[in-house]
Design goal:
single chain; alpha+beta; 30 helices; 17 strands; about 10% strand
């Protein structure tokens, strides 16, 4: 930042540049073609000795002179005035690069002025041939001005070889120079007819007016050929990055494309209509319409061309905020304000944070965005951000995936200052009030079933195999994961050598009171047909299971399972409880005798932090759930970035399951060919907005795992000394592992999401091992090698080979008891003492069988009538 800025709030965002430039471009193009129109029409009048037509030419030349020389010159100076004040950095580059070009253009402009004045003021006093020669001098000078300005303007979009050579001619004769010149020449000639309609409509002689209208129609229509050739050529020579920006990435292009595509046929039709014999009043009104259509059409072209430069003012050289591309690294290292010559705040403190943020807004955002203004008003764009976290994440992701905006430039502290200004000053949010307040612990009562160590013949182990099942109660709009929890169980007959029992018994499960009717608390069942393609009975899960029922025998694991149980974290009392308890009962089929009873939690939470960035707040008790606002904003973002129409579908009552398009092994969906699987897509996308976060900050922003939240899904004693990143890596590392596998499988979208991600646990991307989500996970044995106490706390980057080797699916070394049966589920292995709703809520069975919180088998006589002296389950299993 080498120059100070004239910062406008309401009329910032390039308003004055756009206002003046679009009008000037229309007039200046008319100024080019109008010279040929005057001379040729004068020659026709003189050759046919048509006094009326000659009088019209003189009258039109006066209108032409006033519009182009007076008004056009004023708007031309206005452009220089506004760009010098609002983007002095870009203006300086144009001046210094094209000194010779500007000098030549000003010479030709001087020739235009002199020639046009001579042409008009000597209309009846100069030899006709000499007079027309003056007219041709004007036209040639005007076209040469177009020739020179065209090279400089299109240089900004396609600088070409100039980026390497910095040579005048490489910049001037850039890739889009010739096609743009052809198009602009055609447009200049068309505008002769357009403005000819204006003066012709006010001609009083009806016969002459009709002839003039038809002449002007021909002038309007014939140059269309040149314009179409120029446009097709233009599109063909655009560099790939520019072509992508114009036709794919910039969300603002759609209305300009619509105006541009409709402008040409409307202008064509209007020119045909004007050739008809119409009443003068109608012709006067239509000529105004034709001028306005031309203004919209040419303006749309200029906006599209300008938009194609994004995020640059000079493509691939200088960003819109006047920062050279080569200076970004220095700015990110040292700070934007510290390196800007005209900044007031060189260092950011708690006291000046908001003021520094306002200054950062002026330098980095104000060049394009206004505050409450007519162009690019920042207020509605950030209205949903009611937290510093969400605003900071948005700034963090700028320019990475949607490259129509520059990335934020500066330090993380500066980024936070800008977020503070936007949230506190623009949105008026009091950030002293936490948007995610601390939730107090509750010690809900837990009924531990009795167990008589001396007389009971059976031990019943039951557990949830997911650790935590997150569901999105946004079913009216979309579903990320449906209500679908799993409970597994194994029945052990106690003996000197215990035996797993699967024959002749029935295992039943039943949710605790208050959770019996999930259909009363979430709208999933109302939309199951649209979401899953099948209708479900109220309260029935995707496989037909309800919150109470009979478990299915799984002979391959010598166990029982009830999968996809549709439990939700909303009891009938209106509270939020992510740890509902299920009672599991083993019954002898023949006699109906109860053999054993135990209880386990089925962790289920809707505390997913989409609202942190998408706004809307929590739906239930200020701690969990998806509001309408959050749900729709997620869809709006998807529609904007992926070209989908999900909002439209949702509002029509047709919500979708995310995994219907994005494959996901956990739900068994195949998705659509070529589209990233769901975990890779969602982690890969959001990782670009949540880089460089401390510890598990990025993880807990989305998952229900924040330390002061209502769920805190990491409940094992491991949480005392580990966090998410020890096993899963930082969000960047985690996403890269998923994306690498998708890239290996030929998914093109993976490379785009990976491009701006830098691993933090691994040294390089090459070191990260690709993996399949849900099936290849970090394993306990990564740290507990040979079942021994760990010598490392890094379990990241070594994955299980597949689903059967997952901790939740493995058995002991005898192929009998499942690992989770003794150790409990992932994220809640015993001792699981971190539950917000009571320390023993996750440790019911250790309390029941051992009167402790240790893993089952800490007392071998729970199952073994006689204390064994061998380690049958796994090495080190006899360790006390």
């Amino acid at each position: 930042m080498n120059y100070p800025l004239w910062h406008l709030t309401t009329f910032g965002g390039g308003f004055f540049i756009a206002l003046i430039a679009v009008v000037h471009v229309l007039v200046s193009h008319f100024a080019v073609g109008g010279g040929a129109f005057l001379v040729l029409l004068e020659r026709k009048a003189r050759n046919t000795d048509d006094a009326d037509l000659l009088a019209y030419v003189k009258k039109h030349s006066r209108f032409f002179m006033l519009l182009t020389m007076v008004f056009g010159s004023i708007t031309g100076v206005g452009i220089w005035w506004t760009i010098a004040l609002l983007n002095p950095g870009g203006t300086s580059v144009l001046i210094h690069t094209f000194v010779f070009g500007w000098a030549a253009e000003w010479v030709f402009f001087l020739c235009e002025i002199v020639a046009l004045f001579v042409y008009y003021y000597t209309f009846d006093r100069m030899d006709p041939k000499a007079h027309m020669t003056v007219g041709w001098i004007y036209f040639i000078s005007a076209w040469m001005s177009l020739f020179l300005i065209n090279g400089i303007i299109d240089f900004m979009l396609t600088p070409g070889a100039w980026l390497d050579t910095k040579a005048f001619w490489d910049g001037f004769f850039n890739p889009t120079f010739w096609p743009a010149l052809v198009f602009r020449t055609g447009m200049a000639l068309t505008l002769c007819g357009v403005f000819g309609f204006v003066t012709a409509a006010f001609t009083q002689k009806a016969g002459l007016r009709t002839r003039l209208m038809r002449i002007c129609s021909v002038w309007t229509l014939l140059p269309f050929v040149l314009m179409m050739i120029g446009l097709f050529w233009y599109a063909k020579v655009l560099p790939e990055t520019v072509h992508t920006m114009i036709f794919s990435h910039s969300p603002e292009m759609a209305p300009y494309f619509t105006a541009f595509m409709w402008g040409l046929p409307v202008l064509f039709a209007a020119a045909l209509v004007m050739a008809l014999k119409l009443p003068q009043g109608v012709q006067k009104a239509l000529c105004v319409v034709v001028v306005l259509v031309s203004l919209v059409y040419l303006g749309a072209f200029e906006f599209i061309r300008e938009g194609g430069r994004r995020p640059f003012i000079i493509r691939d050289y200088m960003y819109a905020n006047q920062v050279r591309k080569t200076d970004v690294k220095t700015i990110n290292d040292k700070g934007f304000l510290a390196t800007a010559k005209w900044s007031r705040h060189k260092q950011i403190t708690d006291e000046n944070q908001v003021d520094a943020g306002a200054e950062l807004f002026q330098f980095q955002c104000g060049i394009c965005h206004a505050i409450d203004g007519p162009m690019h008003n920042i207020r509605p764009l950030i209205k949903k951000y009611d937290s510093m976290f969400g605003m900071d994440a948005k700034l963090n992701g700028l320019g990475k995936l949607n490259t129509y905006m520059p990335e934020f430039m500066g330090t993380c502290r500066e980024r936070l200052a800008l977020a503070a200004y936007l949230v506190q000053e623009i949105n008026g949010i009091n950030t002293a009030i936490p948007d995610n307040p601390e939730v107090a612990n509750k010690d809900l009562p837990v009924s531990v079933p009795p167990f008589d160590h001396d007389t009971d013949q059976y031990v019943l182990l039951a557990w949830n195999d997911l650790g935590m099942h997150c569901i999105s109660d946004s079913s009216r709009y979309w579903v990320l994961l449906p209500p679908a929890n799993n409970i597994w169980a194994q029945l052990i007959r106690r003996d000197d050598v215990p035996e797993l029992v699967t024959d002749g018994v029935e295992l039943r499960y039943e949710v605790e009171k208050g959770f019996e009717h999930p259909e009363n608390h979430v709208p999933f069942w109302e939309h199951a047909q649209s979401i899953l393609g099948k209708k479900l009975d109220p309260g029935a899960g995707v496989t037909g299971n309800k919150v109470s029922g009979v478990m299915e025998a799984r002979e391959d694991h010598q166990a029982f399972a009830a999968e996809f149980i549709p439990v939700v974290p909303y009891p009938d009392d209106g509270s939020f409880n992510p740890y509902p308890i299920f009672t599991v009962t083993a019954v002898d089929k023949a006699s109906g005798k109860v053999l054993a009873v135990t209880r386990t939690v089925a962790p289920t939470s809707t505390e997913m932090g989409c609202k942190n960035c998408h706004g809307g707040g929590w739906r239930v008790n200020g701690v969990a759930g998806f509001t309408k606002e959050t749900s729709l904003d997620v869809l709006k973002a998807h529609d904007k970035n992926s070209g989908t129409r999900l909002v439209e579908r949702a509002l029509k009552g047709e919500p979708m399951l995310c995994q219907s398009c994005h494959a996901d092994p956990v739900l068994g969906t195949q998705g659509k060919p070529g589209i990233l699987n769901f975990p890779a897509a969602i982690h890969g996308w959001h990782a670009n907005f949540l880089t460089d976060r401390e510890g598990p900050a990025a993880c807990v922003a989305c998952h229900p795992a924040r330390a002061n939240g209502p769920t805190q899904c990491f409940r094992s004693h491991h949480a005392d000394f580990l966090d998410c990143t020890n096993c899963h890596g930082t969000l960047e590392d985690h996403a890269l592992g998923l994306l690498k596998k998708e890239k290996m499988d030929g998914k093109k979208g993976a490379a785009r999401l990976m491009e701006r991600l830098t691993p933090r646990v691994a040294d390089t991307v090459a070191e990260i091992n690709p993996r399949i989500p849900w099936l290849q996970e970090p394993d306990c044995l990564n740290c507990h090698q040979e079942y021994q106490p760990p010598e490392t706390d890094n379990g990241f980057n070594t994955w299980t080979s597949g689903g059967e080797t997952l901790f939740r699916n493995r058995t002991d070394e005898m192929g009998a008891v499942m690992c989770e049966g003794c150790h409990s589920s992932t994220h809640a292995t015993y001792p699981a003492v971190m539950n917000r709703l009571g320390e023993q809520r996750d440790s019911i069975q250790p309390q029941q069988y051992q009167d402790s919180d240790r893993p089952i088998g800490n007392d071998c006589t729970v199952c073994h009538r006689v204390q064994p002296d061998y380690e049958g389950h796994h090495p080190n299993s006899l360790r006390q």
